[in-house]
Amino acid sequence: MNREPVSRELFDEVMVPNYAPGNIIPVRGEGSRVWDQEGREFIDLQGGIAVTSLGHAHPGLVGTLQEQAEKVWHLSNVMTNEPALRLAKTLCDHTFAERVFFANSGGEANEAAFKLARRYSWEHYGPEKHEIISFKNAFHGRTLFTVSVGGQHKYLEGFEPAPGGIHHAEFNDLDSVKALISKEKTCAVVVEPIQGESGVLPADPEFLKGLRQLCDENNALLVFDEVQTGVGRTGYLYAYEMYGVTPDILSSAKGLGGGFPVAAMLTTAKVAASLGVGTHGSTYGGNALACAVAQKVIDTVSQPEILKGVNARSDKLRKGMMDIGERYGVFSEVRGAGLLLGCVLTEQWQGKAKDFLNAGREEGVMVLMAGANVIRLAPSLIIPEVDIEEALERFEAAVKKLTA
């Protein structure tokens, strides 16, 4: 079948203008490398924004997808299916969770988490206990509810009135939470173990432990948004293990499907009981194709040698970026955990993250931003060592040109 040629200009003709994609259009990927329409090769340190956890065209994922595609794609939740039940059992076996709800995206998983938190408190304590405490600069999704819980007003502008009963404390400041929390009104505290979109900012261990204690004292639920930090990204299957703090509800997406849209909300049996029949749903949630692929991802990523490998790759990438930062005076620190790293620009280069992203692309390496002052790296968890070395060489060439 002959198709019309596709160009970047076509985006402006047919798409809603809420994105501003770069000029290259990748058409093929293998491992941690992608090729565009002209055949130019790029090393991928973006990972689809922490999504392609096993790289591009992973043989195990391709095989699983093909195998399931010949059986059942979709059934709806009027029935259940084998892949969804197997995946739910696996997630419960590997985590604190006893119950799972499947959705399609991180925003949907968070929407379910926040609705569950309110419903649980409504059932157990009454309608007054409905307030949610979140954090400034947090990001939890783009639905009206999740963008309201998120702490970045720019994403809410023009969409008000927002849902009420949401307060924003200072991240890593327990006193600011103490000033807002109450046994009478607070139903949940929602936090990212590492704030992703606002600059790859890790929570202090004592801060998360303090949140757990405050929630316990005030009969509130602790919700961890692990959309970006989950599924091996930090060198642990989920980041709550790294911190030794167990939430009541956890949201997972991004890397869970390795590129296939799938998400999950994990919780305990006691809390889950509040989402009884008919209280919440998702047409595609628990889709057989998505769950089969996610099963393969979890089976692969949860292997101890894979998680150990994440930390080894992290050390190499972190040291390499810090060396570049010191040589050219561009980074003050490299922070984060595992393969979610943020390279913080020095004062001289504040606000210029996009320039580094563009310069990198010209040299054949794809990086991300997390705000205007941080270069974010979220590559495949199994990126080969040789690709890390070559990516660092290419990025250094980009920085050299930019700083000249």
Automatic annotation (TrEMBL):
Reported cofactor(s): pyridoxal 5'-phosphate
CDD domains: OAT_like
A GO cellular-component term linked to this record: cytoplasm
Cofactor binding mode and count: Binds 1 pyridoxal phosphate per subunit.
NCBIfam families: arg_catab_astC, argD, PRK01278.1, PRK05093.1
Subunit structure: Homodimer.
Transmembrane segments: none
Pathway(s) served: Amino-acid biosynthesis; L-arginine biosynthesis; N(2)-acetyl-L-ornithine from L-glutamate: step 4/4
Residues at which pyridoxal 5'-phosphate binds: 139, 225-228, 283
InterPro entries referenced in this protein's UniProt entry, alphabetically: Ac/SucOrn_transaminase_bac (IPR017652), AcOrn/SuccOrn_fam (IPR004636), Aminotrans_3 (IPR005814), Aminotrans_3_PPA_site (IPR049704), Class-III_PLP-dep_AT (IPR050103), PyrdxlP-dep_Trfase (IPR015424), PyrdxlP-dep_Trfase_major (IPR015421), PyrdxlP-dep_Trfase_small (IPR015422)
Cytoplasm among keywords: yes
Xref: HAMAP family: ArgD_aminotrans_3
Subcellular location: Cytoplasm
More about this protein: May also have succinyldiaminopimelate aminotransferase activity, thus carrying out the corresponding step in lysine biosynthesis.
Catalytically driven reaction(s): N(2)-acetyl-L-ornithine + 2-oxoglutarate = N-acetyl-L-glutamate 5-semialdehyde + L-glutamate
Any Gene Ontology biological process: L-arginine biosynthetic process
PROSITE patterns: AA_TRANSFER_CLASS_3
UniProt source species: Marinobacter vinifirmus
Annotated family: Belongs to the class-III pyridoxal-phosphate-dependent aminotransferase family. ArgD subfamily.
Entry EC number(s): 2.6.1.11
Listed name of the protein: Acetylornithine aminotransferase
Record-level Gene Ontology MF annotations: identical protein binding; N2-acetyl-L-ornithine:2-oxoglutarate 5-aminotransferase activity; pyridoxal phosphate binding
Key word 4Fe-4S present: no
